[in-house]
Amino acid sequence: MYACAKLSCAPVLVRRSSRVLYQPLSASVLSSPEARTEQARPGAHRAIQTSAAQRDIDTAAKFIGAGAATVGVAGSGAGIGTVFGSLIIGYARNPSLKQQLFSYAILGFALSEAMGLFCLMVAFLILFAM
Known about the structure:
Elements: H1 2-8, H2 11-19, H3 25-30, H4 33-39, H5 52-69, H6 71-93, H7 98-128
Helix pairs in contact: 5-7, 6-7
């Protein structure tokens, strides 16, 4: 136990470990000593390495997220149908309020369409911006 504690506090290990603390364990253990000094430079950038399976999972997650985001477009269509259906019912009950009912219907149409467009925008952001 004393030997283990003495080994873990060696100055060489402390200096070396402080340089590679910001790296993943696999990169610091599996890389050669030349690569370690090259990565320890402050301006050095490392590319993120992912496996083919990880990329497939990420792509599938993007498609699932984009599909879930486009469900709101169907809701927008249902909302527009409800707005104009209510306009027809309101006009049938009181034809003298035609102008006021129509202005409310256009406002409801615009809000419902905007929600659908926001859902579509989120779907495109998930697909192409991430």
